[in-house]
Design a protein that fits this description.
- By secondary structure, the chain is of the alpha+beta class.
- It contains 11 helices and 12 strands.
- Helices cover about 45% and strands about 20% of the residues.
- β4 and β5 form a beta hairpin.
- The longest helix is centred in the middle third of the chain and has 22 residues.
Length: about 325
């Protein structure tokens, strides 16, 4: 009788231990029938041990990819090597709800899973143990930090007034395009443009009106360019654009389209509409540009030529008079 009591006592504390651990414990036979299903698994799945022990795991959890899971378990059974599944590779094995549904930002429990062999006295692996760790808090914290970093990075690249790239980041992209062009010698054009008589807009209507004109021009630039084009606010009322896979002939067609859009536009401000125009300079890349700045300077000189020639014009760098 004392032996029976001792065995019951040992069984009790073992069951108590399995029930109190905040880790899922599942023991699987070679045919993937369930031998152990602890309290953690019961709490999060609402499946009682009596409902699953002796049953095939996949019959009660069809959301588990059977082929994939068996492949993960093969080396555990056959070579006695543990296997690991981290949430970055696969968010979960068992699709459980989050342990804090009200305060958690996740709809499900992120899990790290360890699978290790349970050897018999003969050394053969006849069962495996699957440990399921709730790492939702860690996963959400990491994703939050990564999301914040991505937003900060995006903010650091964007001009706050226009939503286009700021000068620093546009310059980085320009330098990158220049290096690629030096290797491949593609058709690519740089454009510099600015608003004609912009000081008069500010002096007449105030800086808020000037900001509205700059914002409207940025929208028209976005409308007139492709997703692959790289548009930035270079400073003040000046903008810069990189047109990949574009000859100067095609670039001039695009620039004329933008110039006409702007010339027909009017920005509502209080009880008036502000008319404005732009001047545009274009330089197509050639391997003669030994530095990126020389390419951009040619586009800027073409812009200056457009202004000197009467404004509201598009000028190609090679069309300027020889200096």
């Amino acid at each position: 009788m004392n032996k029976d009591i001792q065995e019951l006592s040992e069984l009790h504390w073992q069951q108590d231990l399995l029930g109190s651990i905040e880790v899922g414990i599942v023991v699987l036979e070679q045919d993937f029938s369930v031998a152990v299903w602890n309290q953690f698994m019961e709490n999060h799945s609402s499946v009682r041990p009596s409902q699953i022990i002796g049953k095939n795991l996949f019959s009660l959890f069809p959301e588990i990819d059977e082929t994939w899971f068996k492949r993960k378990c093969d080396p555990v059974f056959n070579m006695g090597s543990p296997a690991f599944i981290i949430w970055e590779q696969r968010p979960f094995v068992f699709k459980f709800g989050t342990s804090r549904p009200i305060t958690s930002a996740s709809d499900y429990m992120y899990q790290n899973v360890t699978i290790f062999p349970l050897a018999s006295i003969t050394g053969e692996t006849q069962r495996i143990c699957v440990l399921v760790y709730d790492v939702t808090d860690q996963a959400m914290a990491k994703q939050s930090i990564e999301g914040l970093n991505a937003r900060l990075q995006e903010v650091s690249r964007i001009d706050g007034l226009t939503g286009l790239y700021n000068r620093r980041y546009w310059q980085e992209r320009f330098e990158r395009e220049y290096k690629m062009a030096m290797r491949n010698d593609p058709d690519v054009c740089a454009i510099m443009l600015d608003i004609d008589h912009f000081k008069k807009v500010n002096d007449t209507h105030g800086h808020h009106a000037g900001d509205l004109v700059i914002q409207r021009l940025a929208k028209l630039i976005t409308l007139a360019t492709r997703e692959t084009d790289i548009c930035g606010r270079y400073g003040g009322e000046e903008f810069a654009i990189i047109l990949p896979d574009t000859t100067e002939k095609t670039a001039k067609i695009m620039a004329e389209r933008l110039r006409k859009l702007v010339s027909l536009d009017a920005v509502p401000y209080e009880d008036i509409k502000i008319k404005y125009t732009i001047s545009i300079g274009i330089a197509q890349f050639t391997s003669d540009y030994r530095e990126a700045v020389l390419w951009l300077e040619d586009a800027d000189k073409a812009l200056y030529e457009a202004k000197e020639g009467g404004r509201n014009r598009v000028v190609l760098a090679h069309e300027r008079p020889s200096e």
